TrEMBL record:
Keyword Isomerase set for record: yes
Active site per UniProt: 44
Protein name (record): PhzF family phenazine biosynthesis protein
Pfam families given in the database record: PhzC-PhzF (PF02567)
Any one annotated GO CC term: cytoplasm
Lineage: Bacteria, Pseudomonadati, Spirochaetota, Spirochaetia, Spirochaetales
Keywords per UniProt: Isomerase
A single MF term (Gene Ontology): isomerase activity
Parts of the chain that traverse the membrane: none
Family listed: Belongs to the PhzF family.
Membrane keyword on record: no
Domain of life: Bacteria
Length: 261
């Protein structure tokens, strides 16, 4: 079976977030998809099957299937536009979170995602113990968003994985205003519940980061920097209850994987 590895939210290999992408004629079994994701050991492996005029898209971490993944959607879009749908300018995906559309504009892939709702909650001692610094604000939806004072605090975090697991949220997202004129926000994302201490670049979490900073900065469009070791840049635009997340991607490998008969 053909498998591609794409570095998402970057234009350089060895940066951004890696996603393995398998485009199939028909579905293989869920246990087999899980084993492929486990063997790849990337944060996510994406599986896509064409159904009429759209693609059914699913995402697996090494531990489990998840309902939404931004960077693997970008990786899948890159593969489809460049290898399967070369004349298309838009691709529609059927997913567990609904219909997602992606448009190619030059070297950017514009992904139309649902915005998360920001429910403000109390900052707790547990949050401070997990991070090593006390957040200024906290919000919850699928993820837990913790706002810090400065970009330096975000970059220098060395959180406790065990204590992060005690917090609410699928992922723990920390963010602060950027200290560089190139960007509006800086963030890092930790996902111990998914078996990931830190996710390199996280499109889905920017469906929470972007509404927060659009509101605070009075902007409709943002340039967001994720300050992981691999790092990445995301372009976010708020449109009603949707967030347009745009990014670049680059192909690292194209190979055959042997999954047995």
């Amino acid at each position: 079976m053909k498998q591609y590895i794409v570095d998402a939210f970057t234009d350089k290999i060895f940066c951004g977030n890696q996603a393995a992408v398998c485009v199939m004629d028909s579905w293989i079994s869920d246990p087999l998809m899980q084993n492929i994701a486990k063997e790849n050991n990337f944060s996510e492996t994406a599986f896509a099957v064409k159904e009429a005029d759209l693609y059914h898209l699913r995402w697996f971490t090494p531990a489990a299937e998840i309902d939404f993944c931004g960077h693997a959607t970008l990786g899948t879009s890159f593969v489809l536009f460049n290898f399967y749908e070369k004349d298309a300018d838009k691709i529609t995906f059927k997913t567990q979170v609904g219909t997602l559309t992606v448009e190619k504009q030059g070297d950017l892939y514009r992904m139309d995602f649902p915005a998360y709702r920001l429910k403000k909650i109390e900052v707790t001692d547990k949050m401070e113990e997990a991070l090593g610094v006390r957040p200024l604000e906290a919000y919850i939806d699928r993820d837990l968003l913790l706002v810090l004072k400065s970009a330096d605090e975000v970059r220098n975090l060395s959180p406790s994985q065990n204590k992060l697991k005690e917090l609410e949220g699928l992922c723990i997202v920390v963010t602060a205003p950027s200290d560089s004129p190139e960007y509006d926000s800086v963030s890092r994302v930790f996902c111990p519940e998914l078996g990931l201490m830190e996710d390199p670049v996280t499109g889905s979490s920017h469906c929470m980061i972007a509404p927060y900073w659009c509101d605070r900065l009075g902007k409709e469009k943002l340039v967001c920097y994720q300050a992981s070791e691999r790092s990445g840049v995301l372009y976010a635009e708020q449109k009603g209850g949707r967030i347009i997340i745009s990014g670049k991607a680059v192909l690292f490998s194209e190979a055959e994987i042997f999954i047995g008969k």
